[in-house]
Amino acid sequence: MVPRNHLGFRLPTLLACALATGCTFHSTATHWNGRLGEDGKPIFVKTSTNVGMNLIIVLPVLGNTSIDEMLDVTTQEIARFDSDHVRVFETSSENYWHGFPPFTWIFTPVITNVSVEYRPSAREIEEAAKADAHLAEAAKARNEQDNSHILPEPRR
User: Fold this and answer.
1) Residue-wise over 5-30: b if at least 16 C-beta within 10 A, else e?
2) Would you say residue 97 lies in a domain?
3) Is 138 within a domain?
4) Quick check: is 4 in a domain?
């Protein structure tokens, strides 16, 4: 019998689908200690990293392994919040054909990075402020809690 998860998908099918797509990770830098961009408005920096796979070193098979595709994915993420004024300041694409030859000559891992500076929309600034307030509140609660049961008594 093939194990199933709560959605009814067969686990081998789910694993095959997960392995058949590249992974893209996004992170956004929102803290600038009150510093503003050149035009006097706040800026955020979004970095996108994609892990993909090429076949025989150069043929893209899984994931967004080209800079053009990565820029498209990153600007879609920025457009979700109606942000604008995009400026790309760093891109890189690493092809690891030399990792474990001859295996990586056939299935070549590729990691692509794109860093984009942009002007956030009012909605995105508001969401970042809410997240900061929530983190500050959680940190304050952790600092104010009674931890005497955790710390040993001092030696006499």
Assistant:
1) eeeeeeeeeeeeeeeeebebeeebeb
2) yes
3) no
4) no
Domain ranges, residue 61: 23-120
| In-domain check, residue 87 | yes
29 closest CA partner among 48, 56, 51, 13? 48
Q: Is residue 134 over pLDDT 90?
A: yes
Q: What is the pLDDT of residue 21?
A: 58
* Closest by CA position to 74, among listed 136, 40, 24: 24
Number of domains making up the chain: 1
**pLDDT given at position 68:** 87
Measured distance CA(80)–CA(124) in Å, rounded: 10
pTM score of the predicted model: 0.70
- Mean pLDDT for the chain overall: 82
